[in-house]
């Protein structure tokens, strides 16, 4: 069974007289354990797509199911509950609370789930050592590097075993070394605990870590690439080629 | 897009944001205008308390202006900082600084002067009400009529015009001193700096609490008789003030984060949302507002304290008058009593007369004085002594003495015990007596007792002492004559007669109604002034705290976005915010209340006889009004949270 199933999603901004249709009928299926990236030119609607898939924004038309549950008709409270239980997020600008330490930031999603303190501690130890942030647990965000911040953000996304993790340009603000560190960790977690990850990126290198790349253009899916048994270098070349065909600004 | 359009747009936007500022401005103008109107009003001539009404109002209107000016200028610094980005943008698109200054000035001009006009209008409408409140408080039965005073109008316009010029000057300096770049930076430098607690901070935090507690402790023994001499008392008061104020500053600077940090540490990194929103935010922010909070706390403590004390005095008026003279009227000489009763008869006013023979006796009180003060005067006092036959409901055996009419302040100073061994001394005799109790009700007037308790002894002892008097100690009269008017409605008339006979001027001649009126009118005026000044301070400082919260909320808005993305509902966040505001407004309030509680407690007995009722009423009122601002800030946050996703 697909873990995420989106059918014919449309999204427009503006009012009746001045309407901008950003998404025009997108169908997307993601299976458990997939690591999918979404690519496209700047302004093509990648963030918009991710936001509606992750319930942060509402679709204008269409339905989205996660683990068989359609949430497009849900009320704000239900939606929040849904996000809390099923989803994890990593953002380009980290979105850490700067008044909380690394550990406090990471454990935040657990605090509303009535997890015992002991269990929370165990979980933290596990995920933090996996992502290499255990040593900085008691530091504040302004005391650590961008790469560490993003790994903290990733730890927060993984801590409560969500069904899907959404990442919007997670490497966008990182230098290439920190970026590849993070991507290695993500694909490791993807393999090890069979986590499902959907990542928006405009960086072909980042996309080459994934198992599938979805290209969008003019609000529709232009094409998809499967990594299959290819090497990462090979896959990277495929991505570059497709991007070239896609044309326009390669942002 | 012309200049007028920009001004109009800004104005519309700002009014929505700063309705509280406009409200506070209107309120202050209205109050100021009323005060000045009263001051200029001929009705104030009628008011002849022991304090000059018009002068007191004039002085307090100066204080009022000082509070309001500080508030307006401070609020303006908050606002101009918030708008620095907009100002930078104007500069970026090529407006000159002069032009920007003109935009700001005209915008302010419209907002400011329309508030002032509304304020003056309201002030005039309410000045009659305010005058009525004043008359009621001071017990004056005059009709409250007021006419519009052009002098008051002129003074109000001039004063607030000057404040406007000051604000403009401030804006001018601000704009002039900034380059485009620095304008963009203002907001980011204001951001909080998250830092780990250092040892120094922990020490500061502990020191703050110790200093406050030390101040409280010393205040509780200030008037207990351990300290004697005015310089010593004065130095101690300075110490208390300094210790508490500095302690308060350190408390905000360190103790709050110290305590919150300790709570947070105990959670081991596993914080609930409520903790995230309240603890972690306040921990870092209260520090940066330490000075402001200290000022607000200190002045509100002062306001609550003064108001409580004057209310205590006002509230205890009748009791203290009864304490000064137990009957409605008292005259010294029997022939004057005859004159008075004759006059009363002439007006058909019923009366009852009480006579008590009083002798002045030296008493050795070493056995009942707890403080060192006793030794200063050899542990003896000159007490009025009365026979138990002459006091209704009292019967003591020949070995026993009952003290009555003791004064609160005196008890406190001397730490008088209510039982113990004393000795009454005549010229030759020395009679040991067992003190069996201390009652509150006076039986002779202050003329005889001078604030000391009256000793009631058995008739036989009284007779012995009366035979053995030390003539040097006796007063002009040895009989206390009290006259009561059973019909309360005749009391005023009787007082007029008493006054007409010229008794009110002479020492030893006392009138309860006159005493009550005197104290009510002076305490009423003080309460009126302190009350309104306190209210103004409350409203302006509440507004400042609210504006600070607006800034804080604006800065924390991204956090709410993150939290909502993570799946926390608006309801979750709002609950956390409510807790945060409970601390944000509650901590300064509780510290202020505690300060004033200890201040009042240390010296209230000098002002009256009832501590709790007046103090609690004042504190409840203050808390209720203050809570409004906390409540409004929660509403503001609610909107912010709603908009954050
Ligand atoms: N909240 C919004 N209101 C109106 N238009 C929006 C909003 N968010 C995005 N858009 C528009 O939708 C388009 C796609 O934006 P986005 O999804 O952010 O692109 P991408 O992330 O691919 O760069 C853009 O043209 C943008 O102007
Ligand atoms: Mg984007």
TrEMBL record, chain A:
UniProt keyword Nucleotide-binding, yes or no: yes
Pfam families: ABC_tran
Listed GO MF terms: ATP binding; ATP hydrolysis activity; transmembrane transporter activity
ABC transporter domain segment(s): 4-243
InterPro entries per record: AAA+_ATPase, ABC_transporter-like_ATP-bd, MacB-like_ATP-bd, P-loop_NTPase
Keywords associated with the record: ATP-binding, Nucleotide-binding, Transport
Signal peptide start and end residues: none
PROSITE patterns referenced in this protein's UniProt entry, alphabetically: ABC_TRANSPORTER_2
Family (UniProt): Belongs to the ABC transporter superfamily.
Name the record gives this protein: ATP-binding cassette domain-containing protein
Lineage start: Bacteria, Bacillati, Bacillota, Bacilli, Bacillales
From TrEMBL, chain B:
Alphabetical GO biological process terms: transmembrane transport
Native source organism of the sequence: Paenibacillus campinasensis
Cellular compartments annotated: Cell membrane
A Gene Ontology cellular-component term: plasma membrane
This protein's name: Bacitracin ABC transporter permease
Entry membrane topology: Multi-pass membrane protein
rRNA-binding as UniProt keyword: no
Transmembrane segments: 18-35, 55-75, 109-135, 155-175, 199-218, 233-252, 290-314, 525-547, 582-600, 612-637
InterPro entries with a match to the protein in the record: ABC-4_Integral_Memb_Prot (IPR052536), ABC3_permease_C (IPR003838), ABC_permease_BceB-typ (IPR027022)
Coiled coil: none
Domain ABC3 transporter permease C-terminal: 61-175
């Amino acid at each position: 069974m697909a873990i995420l199933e989106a059918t014919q999603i449309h999204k427009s901004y503006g009012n009746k007289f001045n309407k901008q249709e950003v998404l025009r009928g997108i169908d997307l299926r993601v299976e458990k354990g997939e690591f999918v990236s979404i690519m496209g030119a700047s302004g093509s609607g990648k963030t918009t797509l991710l936001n509606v898939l992750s319930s942060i924004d509402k679709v204008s038309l269409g339905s989205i199911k996660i683990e068989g549950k359609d949430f497009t008709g849900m009320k704000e409270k239900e939606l929040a509950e849904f996000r809390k239980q099923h989803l994890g997020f990593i953002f380009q600008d980290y979105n850490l609370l700067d008044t909380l330490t690394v550990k406090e930031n990471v454990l935040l999603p657990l605090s509303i789930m009535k997890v015992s303190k002991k269990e929370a501690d165990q979980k933290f130890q596990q995920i933090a050592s996996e992502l290499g942030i255990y040593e900085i647990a008691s530091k504040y965000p302004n005391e650590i590097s961008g790469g560490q911040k993003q790994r903290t953000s990733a730890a927060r996304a993984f801590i409560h075993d969500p069904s899907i993790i959404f990442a919007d340009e997670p490497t966008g603000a990182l230098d290439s070394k920190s970026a590849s560190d993070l991507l290695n960790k993500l694909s490791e977690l993807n393999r090890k605990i069979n986590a499902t990850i959907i990542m928006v990126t405009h960086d072909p290198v980042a996309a080459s870590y994934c198992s599938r790349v979805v290209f969008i253009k003019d609000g529709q899916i232009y094409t998809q690439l499967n990594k299959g048994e290819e090497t990462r270098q090979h896959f990277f070349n495929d991505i570059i080629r497709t991007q070239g065909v896609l044309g326009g600004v390669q942002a | 897009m012309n200049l007028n359009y920009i001004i109009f747009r800004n104005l519309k936007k700002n009014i929505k944001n700063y309705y509280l500022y406009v409200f506070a401005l209107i309120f202050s103008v209205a109050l100021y205008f009323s005060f000045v109107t009263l001051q200029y009003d001929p009705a104030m001539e009628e008011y002849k308390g022991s304090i000059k009404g018009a002068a007191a109002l004039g002085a307090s209107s100066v204080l009022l202006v000082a509070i309001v000016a500080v508030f307006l200028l401070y609020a303006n610094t908050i606002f101009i900082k918030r708008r620095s980005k907009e100002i930078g943008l104007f500069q970026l698109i090529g407006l000159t600084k002069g032009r920007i200054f003109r935009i700001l000035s005209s915008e302010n001009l419209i907002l400011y002067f329309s508030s002032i006009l509304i304020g003056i209008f309201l002030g005039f409408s309410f000045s009659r009400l305010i005058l009525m409140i004043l008359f009621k408080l001071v017990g004056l039965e005059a009709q409250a009529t007021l006419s519009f005073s052009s002098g008051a109008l002129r003074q109000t316009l001039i004063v607030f015009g000057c404040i406007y010029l000051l604000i403009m000057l401030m804006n001018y300096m601000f704009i002039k001193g900034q380059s485009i770049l620095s304008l963009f930076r203002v907001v980011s430098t204001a951001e909080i700096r998250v830092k780990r607690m250092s040892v120094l901070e922990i020490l500061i935090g502990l020191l703050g609490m110790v200093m406050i507690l030390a101040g409280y402790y010393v205040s509780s023994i200030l008037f207990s008789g351990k300290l004697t001499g005015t310089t010593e008392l004065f130095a101690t008061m300075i110490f208390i003030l300094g210790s508490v104020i500095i302690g308060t500053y350190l408390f905000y600077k360190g103790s709050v984060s110290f305590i919150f940090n300790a709570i947070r540490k105990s959670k081991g990194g596993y914080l609930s949302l409520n903790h995230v929103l309240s603890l972690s935010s306040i921990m870092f922010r209260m520090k940066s507002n330490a000075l402001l909070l200290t000022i607000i706390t200190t002045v509100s403590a002062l306001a609550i304290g003064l108001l409580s004390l004057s209310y205590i005095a006002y509230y205890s008026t009748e009791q203290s008058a009864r304490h000064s003279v137990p009957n409605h009227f008292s005259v010294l000489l029997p022939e004057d009593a005859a004159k008075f009763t004759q006059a009363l008869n002439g007006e058909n006013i019923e009366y009852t007369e009480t006579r008590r023979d009083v002798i002045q006796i030296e008493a050795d009180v070493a056995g009942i004085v707890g403080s060192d003060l006793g030794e200063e005067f050899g542990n003896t006092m000159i007490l009025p002594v009365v026979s138990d036959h002459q006091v209704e409901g009292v019967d003591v055996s020949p070995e026993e003495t009952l003290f009555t009419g003791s004064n609160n302040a005196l008890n406190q100073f001397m730490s008088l015990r209510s039982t113990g061994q004393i000795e009454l001394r005549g010229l030759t005799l020395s009679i040991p007596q067992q003190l069996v109790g201390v009652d509150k009700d006076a039986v002779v007037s202050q003329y005889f007792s001078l604030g000391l308790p009256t000793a009631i002894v058995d008739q036989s002892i009284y007779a012995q002492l009366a035979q053995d008097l030390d003539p040097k100690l006796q007063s002009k009269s040895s009989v206390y004559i009290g006259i009561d008017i059973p019909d309360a409605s005749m009391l005023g008339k009787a007082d007029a007669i008493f006054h007409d006979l010229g008794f009110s001027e002479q020492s030893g001649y006392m009138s309860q109604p006159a005493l009550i009126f005197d104290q009510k009118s002076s305490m009423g005026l003080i309460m009126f002034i302190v009350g309104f000044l306190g209210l103004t301070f409350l409203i302006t400082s509440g507004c400042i705290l609210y504006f600070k919260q607006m800034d804080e909320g604006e800065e924390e808005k991204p956090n709410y976005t993150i939290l909502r993305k993570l799946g926390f509902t608006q309801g979750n966040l709002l609950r956390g915010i409510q807790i945060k505001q409970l601390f944000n407004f509650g901590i300064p309030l509780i510290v202020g209340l505690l300060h004033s509680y200890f201040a009042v407690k240390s010296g209230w007995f000098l002002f009256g006889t009832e501590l709790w009722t007046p103090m609690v009423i004042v504190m409840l009122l203050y808390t209720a009004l203050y809570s409004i601002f906390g409540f409004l800030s929660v509403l503001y946050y609610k909107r912010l949270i709603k908009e954050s996703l």
